[in-house]
Amino acid sequence: MANQTPLGPVQESSTPEVKFREFLEIRGEKLTEPRRVLLRHIFDSHKHFDADELVAELHANDRKVSRSTVYRTLRLLVEAGLLRELRLTNRTAYEHDYGYPSHDHLHCTECNRVVEFINDDIVKIREAVSLQNGFRAEGHRFMITGICAACSRARSPRRRLDLI
Amino acid sequence: MANQTPLGPVQESSTPEVKFREFLEIRGEKLTEPRRVLLRHIFDSHKHFDADELVAELHANDRKVSRSTVYRTLRLLVEAGLLRELRLTNRTAYEHDYGYPSHDHLHCTECNRVVEFINDDIVKIREAVSLQNGFRAEGHRFMITGICAACSRARSPRRRLDLI
DNA sequence: ATTTTTGCAAACCATTTGCAGCTGG
DNA sequence: CCAGCTGCAAATGGTTTGCAAAAAT
Fold it and tell me: What is the CATH number of the domain that holds A47?
């Protein structure tokens, strides 16, 4: 799942680890070693990932964390506001939701790439629509699906050259 | 999955069955009896539904269609542009996409109800963002998540109304 | 000491698929 | 007739869960 990171970071008052510990303390839960390993790995690089990739990468690095713990911790991190879920067609991907500006996504159904973009009007629409419907909005998902520039290019006006 | 129908129908040049037959003919496929039964049932009432509900309702009506055929036909109807998929948290729901205006959704995470709304600015944003990113947009999903008015009011130990 | 967490394996569950027989055109 | 379809049962695959051992406070 390739993905670039066009958006810059945002200044935050504490690290993900501190924020996670606070979250766990409130619920009387613990910041264990596997959770720390996972957290460090996740916030070490900024990209989209899924549970499976996490398991594989950690195994490759000899920092093994079991699949169940990965799933359980991902759920906690979402609840803690550190990660955001992206439900794609066949799997659930995650991205940083802390220390990173809020944004939405373009999803190329051809190459499966996800590109981020920021548009402030979306939240305005969200609030206006919620107000009209007596809805207390907690979040939204806006995903534009289609074909990215690269795939469009590689699609039609290119065939003839392949024929030699 | 309770859901009202706030939006009015739209004038179309042919019925869902005609449109589906055309779609199938182009691909050299057949409009069989199970498919007809399913299509009739789906377009008989306007509401959101999932594969399981369809199977149950048809069985209750003694118009049994097998689960596999339901799934296979739903996929065709989406490809044909007659239905639209809504990926909710735990399941895939469907709604009419033919003879019905384009719209987006509010999803109450408490009672799981989905409410439709129309906002023309969303498509404008979609086109603007796509242009900026060299993206050829084919569609979008905009889902606002939060708590609906009814659940806000009853905001006590209320459990989700998830039917089944 | 007590409560939470972990890893494993098994369970889940919506959806898909292989196949033998049925059906529409 | 023959490609395409159906129903059944079995397979899939991502995700969750039960449980006994391990770790945190």
Answer: 1.10.10.10
Q: Please, which positions of strand C sit below 7 A from a protein CB?
A: 3-9, 14-18, 23-25
Domain region containing B26:
11-100
* pTM over cut 0.85: no
A95 Cβ nearer than 7 Å to chain D strand: no
Q: Domain ends where: B48, B80, B100?
A: B100
Between the alpha carbon of residue B30 and those of residues B24, B26, B41, B78, B105, the distances in Å are 6, 10, 18, 16, 34
Domain count, chain A: 2
Chain D positions within 7 A of any protein Cβ atom are: 3-9, 14-18, 23-25
pLDDT of residue B109: 76
- Verify that B72 and B132 share a domain, yes or no: no
Q: Please report whether residue B28 resides in a domain.
A: yes
Binary contact (B125, A139; C-beta < 8 A) = no
B3, part of any domain = no
Residues B73 and B117 in one domain: no
Q: Give the residue from B90, B106, B102, B88 showing the smallest Cα distance to B140.
A: B102
Confidence at residue B12, expressed as pLDDT on a 0 to 100 scale: 66
Which residues of chain A carry a pLDDT beneath 70?
Answer: 1-6, 8-13, 155-164
Q: What is the DSSP string of B26-72?
A: HTT----HHHHHHHHHHHHS---EEHHHHHHHHHHTT----HHHHHH
pLDDT in tens, B65-93: 999 999 999 999 999 999 999 887 778 99
Select from B87, B108, B135 the Cβ nearest to the Cβ of A146.
B135
